């Protein structure tokens, strides 16, 4: 029997299709257990600030009344007043999931946003006690991204850094949050300081300089640190 190249190609395609059809879809990862923290970055058109701030305030007020909501804050980036961050803490993932499915925040921001809200869900890597914010407090959110093989090395340098920083003068909050699988190599440092002067003194400390020096070789993306003030 004569077999042509075209016949062989068709046979290969058929076999590939059959194999694909028999391969079950990967199951989604289970929802995280325990408390979660959600950090959402919002960037809007500078000409649309009034509407954006109103929408963010409405979201904060409504979310604070939800069952399972532990805390929610809205912050404006210093020097970039058209960029915001929403910081939420939830007792469990199901409460947050129900809230975000019912939320109309994305629609409220669509008229002026420069990009869709960038929402990042985290579990707690290291969360310590937080002091009450003071007038003029500074808020800092830092995204840290290392290559997956470097995760153990990150933990090795972060643990002593966090412990020493929580003892710094003016430190109100210093928490390390970890993104959900499969992106556990992405972290967020969530900080609050009594003043910008306290934050700058911390940055100049021996343990902060040493941390940044040791972190550099592990990074897989830009060390993204942003400073904020509270939206009242």
* Mean of all residue-level pLDDT scores: 90
Number of strands: 8
**Beta-strand fraction estimate:** 25-35%
> How are the strands of the largest sheet arranged?
1-3-2-8-5-7-6-4
Q: Rounded to an integer, what's the Rg over CA atoms?
A: 23 Å
Low-confidence stretches: 8-13
Helix content: 25-40%
The secondary-structure element order is HEHEEHHEEHEEHHE
Count up the helices.
Answer: 7
| CATH-level-2 architecture | 2-Layer Sandwich
Count of folded domains: 1
The major β-sheet equals: 8 strands, antiparallel, barrel
Classification by helices and strands: alpha+beta
**Shape, principal axes of CA atoms:** globular
Quote the distance from N terminus to C terminus: 82 Å
Question: How is the topology of this model organized?
Answer:
Elements: H1 5-22, E1 36-43, H2 49-64, E2 69-77, E3 83-90, H3 93-102, H4 105-109, E4 118-126, E5 138-145, H5 151-165, E6 171-179, E7 186-193, H6 196-203, H7 206-215, E8 224-230
Antiparallel strand pairs: 1-3, 1-4, 2-3, 2-8, 4-6, 5-7, 5-8, 6-7
Helix pairs in contact: 5-7
Overview of the structural elements:
This protein has 232 residues and is an alpha+beta fold. It has a single domain, classed as Alpha-Beta Plaits. It has helices spanning 5-22, 49-64, 93-102, 105-109, 151-165, 196-203, 206-215; strands at 36-43, 69-77, 83-90, 118-126, 138-145, 171-179, 186-193, 224-230. An 8-stranded antiparallel barrel has the order 1-3-2-8-5-7-6-4. The longest helix is centred in the first third of the chain and has 18 residues, at 5-22. The chain is globular, with a radius of gyration of 23 Å. The N and C termini lie far apart (82 Å).
